[in-house]
Amino acid sequence: MFLLGTSGFAQDKQDPKKDPPAKPQPGRPIPDPKLDKSAPGQKPVIASKANREDGGQAKDSEVKNNDPMGSLPFVFQEGPFKDLQVFGYSYFAAARDNALGKRIPKAKPAEQSGPEARKKDESTDSTVKSAPADKSTSAQEKLNKKDPGTMRKDQELEETNQAPVNALQYFVGPAQMANGNVAMPAPERYQLGPGDKLVIRYSSPLELPKERIVTVESTGTLIVPVMGTKLTVRGMSLAQAEKAIVKEIQRGLRDASVTVSLGELRTISISIVGEVVAQGSYQVPSVMTLFNALYTAGGPTIDGSFRNIQLRRSNGTSRTIDLYSYLLKGDPSQDVALQPGDLILVPPATNRVAIKGEVGRPAVYEMLSTEKAKDLLKYAGGAKSTAILSRTEIRSVNPGIERELKTVDLTGDVNPAIREGDIVTLYALREEIENAIEVEGAVDQPRAYQFRAGMKVSDAILEARGLLKDAYNVRADLYRENPDKTITLLPIDLQKALNRDPAGDLALQRSDRLRIYFATEVMWLQDRVVTLEGAVRTPGKFLRLDGMRLSDLLLQAGGPLPTASYEAVFVYRKNTDGTEGPLLKPNLGRALSKSADDDVILKDRDLVVVYSIDEAQFKSKQVVTIQGAVVKAGNFLRSEALTARDLIQLAGGLRPDASEELQISHARTFDSSTSRGGEVQANKKPYQTYKVLDVLAGRENPVMEDGDVLTIPGRGDYQEAPILVEIKGRVKFPGVYAITKRGETVYDLLQRAGGKAEDGWLEGAQFTRAPKYLTSDAESRLSPRVRKLLEEIQEQAYLRALAKSDIDKIRLLNSQGGGNSSALLGVLGGAPVPQTATATDSEATKKLLQRETVSPARVLSTEEIIESGNIPIRLDEVEKNRKSQSNLTLKDGDILTIPERPTTIAVRGSVILPSTLIFEKGKTLDYYLAKCGGSTIDADTTQVLVIRATGTITKARGSTRIELGDAIFVPTRVMVAKLTDASSTFDSAIKSLTNAGIVWALISRLL
Question: Of 300, 624, 693, 1001, which is least packed with CB atoms within 10 Å of its CB?
Fold first, then answer.
């Protein structure tokens, strides 16, 4: 249907309540809809459940309660009764809380928290703590020593035994009736019995008024005052007992006035069993009824029956109670007064059916065998006005055969029977309103209206209270729905329709939609807006009025800012076709003075820009810089008349290494031949040099200008900390020495230490320097990049070597007749090729291919990358020739060690007997290895290392001569078995392969 209702039509219709474009207010900036929250079309955000602090969404336990003992109605979450609650179960919600002890009692005044209560508790605690623990402790002190739980129980017991609750002054419900005594008028039907207390008041002309409380004994008798006789009152009502007592008292007291009232009800014992929340035996007041008793026990459980509750008397009689009659009809006969020994049995519920949809109370109900569908409808509160009773759906079960769906008409006399588990559904009418037309757009009341036969366009406009002032009264559009749900557009001559001319005043049909346009929607109107930007108080868009000038616009914007330039004002104007028009350059000062030439008349879409002084002319930053040998170098704001001495003081003063001169470099320099603006600039040098002492003394103190940079070089011969070196070992005066002059060498240090001792060995001297002096800045920057590049190259080389190793494995397998290509591909990472292979072949292939034959490149450690600091020198040559290359210039932290002359050499590593041997001049490496029994079987004689006494390491051969103090190290080698002979090549391996998948897997690893 085209017409969906009073709230809207089809999706292709326009918004019937669309507001016309916002009307700007003269003299005020036009609000930007993107920024102004109060702009038209932006509805205010209303707080809802979705944006509350708690998230606005109820938890599942608040909607569907899985716990049938909870305080909310039970709702089925699955099965045929899903999302339906059990009728009657919610009546006992509070009762279940009481029965299960969920409710928290309100704090009594004496238990309320507060400063006084805390003080009282503290004083009580202190009293208890200070009480002497002897046998003579009083009963009150013993009570105070009880634990809080015991004290609460005693207090509750004491409260239970207090005076009865007065039903005439306080609300008395089932809980109060069950848990305490109740003082209330006895019902007329109430029969006296053992335990009842009667209040007898009597007086006479000769006797003062007296009151006696007598109790009905277990035999059903009581003792009458005055006479002292026994009177049987069992089974009497209160009125009957009063007559009998009055008669007895008047026998002994003439003209006595006697009144009898019930002082306190007796308690009786009953039992509640079956499907109840808290079954058991209860001591309840004698006026307790069956409903109150069930309420006290928490009511029936989710499985309990409401229609077949059994009340069994001690005399053997029984009665069936239907709570539906009591809860829905208010039948008092179902709320039976209880008697001593009564037993209430709540059996399981049977014959449950559900009703949902357009009813007053959709739920699951318990039905009697004689009740039918219309009875269920009554229990559900009847059908709503929107229900379709003639198409009532019943989902039922044909017992033991099939499930079935029935559609019945409940508007007539038909009243179908229902079975256990049936679901009755009443569906609602459609939401769409059929007898309506809609008027939208530029009318006073755009909305849907009732359609009447013979209604025309003029009638619809009249229903909408006529057109608005800004309505487009030339044409309107009528949208009409066709039988195939398509839409037909009918143009309406609005003037003829308003004049009731049949040519324009067309007859309407159901679901028609009449659209009245705003003038701004169909007519192009030039934007009567001007824009003001720049150095004004309130920039923005303003409504242009007829005759509006530049001064008027500035007045509406609050005037120009103090920083505004009166010369740099521009008016950008557009042509009528929207292209850029002429540029006007009025003078702001003259415009504000109402000068006709500068106070231009504004036009639509003009853009007025008022520049600030900083934007209109160049202004350098008021900053100067100081660098070099000062405490705090950096940029500083240039204050007025700031001098070079002031700037040095702002920088914290000079450092000790400051030189004798400073230099001031200027940011702008011009040659005498350069002109700017018609004026020749003065000749100015790019920089000036001054003596530091003259500047500090004020003899020369130039004024700094914006952008100037003051630099103070340092002194190269200044050493902030002393340079210390150390000489150790066999010298006459070993120790730490300070370098007194630059260029001091190893020879000078040896001479200052008194030269070598008699047993000093200059040939084995060791020289160590800190690594920071051995690495250049460029090396520190480039080393990480070089290291990363080498690691990538090594990784690629490892992958290629691994692929070649795989080829050797495959060739070996082929030569042994075990080439299973599917297994090979699985290990190599390719897609397995289905082939027939035995389990033995697959296992052998797997073991061979998993054998590691190629190891990745070893990752270098930090110690291998950073220099050790040891520099080998020949101190014996330095002693002979000071110009020797070993005569190094000393640096801070250098250490020179001159050892004692040795007489032995050491042989270690893979030899038969590692030993220390006496040095014999001229002997070779093989000689000393033979002295140790020779090398072992796993010795790698091609990689023998000789560690010299100076710290250098030499790779030695068998004929290498060994010098005094050397240490020989023989490493071991890895025992390797080759998979193929030396003549195997990559090409021959590829040619021997027959599976294309293996070839592709290997090539991909080699690429």
Answer: 693
